[in-house]
């Protein structure tokens, strides 16, 4: 407890660093087995850097700076997650004549706005981006 006093300990970024380092630890075994020593050395170096970063951050007393790094990391992850989710998002369609066979078209039961969702997602809950009404549909 004395040791950890004033230190930040683990945060999301550190957990990610150590997980990536562990995964790389498994991956390099294969490169070693197959005799790809150059790739093995490169990955080994990356792994070493990750582990050093982990310990530097873990033992750091500059909490503010570590917090900033972690926040930046969380923002980066959130952005990535949002982009992925957007693929399935319901979108308005202003021009119903330009129908794309990759999409299924719906009409919002509340505000009658035309919506489209990607086809082939099965039974889904569609949320109208305009009035936030949710209804079920099959895409
Ligand atoms: Zn609506």
Describe it.
With 139 residues, this protein is an alpha+beta fold. The chain has two domains: 12-85, no CATH class; 91-138, no CATH class. 50% of the residues lie in helices and 16% in strands. The strands form two sheets. The protein has a three-stranded antiparallel beta sheet, with no helix packed on it. Strands 4-5 form a two-stranded antiparallel ribbon. α1 packs antiparallel against α2 (37-59). It is elongated and about 60 Å long. The termini are far apart.
Concise structural overview:
By secondary structure, the chain is an alpha+beta fold.
What is the topology?
Blueprint: H1 12-33, H2 37-59, H3 63-86, E1 91-92, E2 103-107, E3 114-118, E4 123-127, E5 134-138
Antiparallel strand pairs: 1-3, 2-3, 4-5
Briefly note the structural class of the backbone: alpha+beta
* Global geometry: elongated
Radius of gyration: 24 Å
State the end-to-end CA separation.
55 Å
Percentage of β-strand residues: 15-25%
Query: Which residues form runs of ≥5 with pLDDT under 50?
Result: none
Element pattern in H and E? HHHEEEEE
Helix amount, in percent?
40-55%
How much is the average pLDDT?
82
Features:
139 residues; elongated; 3-stranded antiparallel beta sheet; 2 domains; alpha+beta; binds zinc ion; two-stranded antiparallel ribbon; 3 helices
